[in-house]
From TrEMBL:
The protein's Enzyme Commission number: 6.2.1.30
InterPro entries, A to Z: AMP-bd_C_sf, AMP-dep_Lig_C, AMP-dep_synth/lig_dom, ANL_N_sf, PA_CoA_ligase
Enzyme class, first EC level, given as a word: ligase
GO molecular function: nucleotide binding; phenylacetate-CoA ligase activity
Function field: Catalyzes the activation of phenylacetic acid (PA) to phenylacetyl-CoA (PA-CoA).
Any single Pfam family the record assigns to this protein: AMP-binding
Annotated protein name in UniProt: Phenylacetate-coenzyme A ligase
Pathway per the UniProt entry: Aromatic compound metabolism; phenylacetate degradation
Length: 433
């Protein structure tokens, strides 16, 4: 097995020893910020008292609201003059969250990202097209600097403009891309309109992330493009992309434990869950100097995978995301994640590339309606065939969800399309509940 750097070959004992050393240093650095000085004082926590990795649990969680309340710079652990870049959320729901980086932070991030890309099979001889948004969003620049650090010819295509994307892919014989899954599906329809077979490209690897998606969607993308698609995980509070990535085994994402301390907790109680059980991912930066973040509640639901990875790396793996705590839908008293619906739909060959979950209220009763695009060859005039398909989809969804949704079959391209993240849920219940 070939590795990008020595950190990938660390043993379990070496990883935990390094984590403890870096945790102590990171907490000491965090305490220099106005926010964490108060945060630690409120719980009578002294960073110097840390003797084991479990001691981090004595610190209350950091939440997105804390970051908003600290806007614009109360979480800085170094003078603003030492910062060379900031990223921010869109702020569409209120005050944005802001993350700052020193030059050392950016160099470390680029190295982690290059490590991810190398692990997935990319090399300096690859031509890499970054089809992610640049600017305040971390996905664009994070992936970009990783690709350049690896030595790839890097094309900063950015998001959208599908015809230009396809021209770049074709003219420059691109071999690797970064793309969000819903846009990859959208782009496949543009290929069809242009009469181009995506399998005719030089493309061999796609790095896919930024939004939850299912294994069924991944396999569909691999079939459409004739590639290997690798799951990735990141969030701006932990730098951005590069927090965890799949190796070529494609079974779980390795968290780079020399850079992050990961916990999985019960979202209701905050207590650790046993390995292998589903819970909320909580992350702590290990080594970021400008703005350390301690015990951050990601709201992402996943689990640790316990079996050894055949690739030889012992950095712990997390499962693909099972949705978010705050994405959970409650219909007729049943907890439902949109990912469950996608998993069922994308496994059915009759289903096209898009769907929409509509939540409705009839008096005091909540109902769920799923609008499903059907492939052209299955959207026939025979109402009996369409009715049978509709019932089959509803039955499979009922088996998965434990409630029976209304299923509405629609023609290809009849649902609203976007070149960004797809809108999957429309809540029409009036109170947003």
């Amino acid at each position: 097995m070939v590795y990008y750097d020595a950190a990938e070959t660390l043993s379990r004992v070496e990883i935990e020893r390094l984590q403890l050393e870096r945790l102590r240093a990171s907490l000491k650095q965090a305490a220099k910020s106005p926010f964490y000085a108060k945060h630690f004082a409120a719980c009578d926590f002294d960073p110097a008292s840390v003797a084991t990795l479990a001691d981090v649990r004595r610190i209350p969680f950091t939440t997105k609201q804390h970051l908003r309340d600290s806007y614009p710079d109360a979480m800085l652990a170094m003078p603003l003059s030492e910062m060379v870049r900031m990223h921010a959320s869109s702020g569409t729901t209120g005050t944005p969250t802001v993350i700052y980086h020193t030059q050392n932070d950016l160099d470390w991030w680029a190295s982690l990202m290059a490590r991810c890309m190398y692990m997935a099979g990319l090399r300096r001889t690859d031509v890499f097209q970054n089809m992610s948004g640049y600017g305040l969003f971390t996905g664009g620049l994070g992936i970009h600097y990783g690709a350049e650090r690896l030595g790839c010819l890097t094309i900063p295509a950015g998001a959208g403009n599908s015809h230009r994307q396809i021209k770049l892919l074709t003219d420059f014989k691109v071999t690797g891309i970064h793309i969000i899954p819903s846009y990859a599906l959208y782009l496949s329809a543009v290929f069809a309109e242009l009469g181009i077979d995506p399998k005719s490209l030089s493309l061999r690897i796609a790095l896919v992330g930024a939004e939850p998606y299912t294994e069924e969607t991944r396999r569909r993308l691999e079939e459409i493009y004739g590639i290997k698609a690798y799951n990735s995980y990141g969030l701006s509070e932990m730098n951005g992309p590069g927090v965890a990535f799949e190796c070529q085994e494609q079974h779980g994402m390795h968290v780079w434990e020399d850079a992050y301390l990961a916990e999985i907790v019960d979202p209701a109680t905050g207590e650790p869950v046993p390995d292998g059980e589903l819970g909320e991912l909580v992350m702590t930066t290990l080594g970021r100097e400008g703005m350390p973040v301690v015990r951050y509640r990601t709201r992402d639901m996943t689990r640790f995978l316990t079996e050894p990875c055949p690739c030889g790396r012992v950095h712990r793996r997390i499962d693909r995301l099972h949705g978010r705590c705050d994405d959970m839908l409650i219909v007729k008293g049943v907890n439902i994640f949109p990912m469950q619906i996608e998993r069922v739909l994308m496994a059915m060959p009759e289903v096209g590339q898009d769907y929409l979950i509509v939540l409705e209220r009839d008096g005091y009763i909540d109902n769920i309606r799923v609008k499903v695009e059907i492939r052209d060859e299955y959207f026939v005039e025979d109402m009996r065939q369409l009715g049978a398909l509709q019932k089959r989809i509803a039955a499979r969804l009922r088996d998965e969800l434990l409630v029976t949704p209304k299923v509405e079959l629609v023609e290809r391209n009849s649902l609203p399309k976007t070149e960004g993240k797809a809108t999957r849920v429309l809540d029409m219940r009036g109170n947003g509940a």
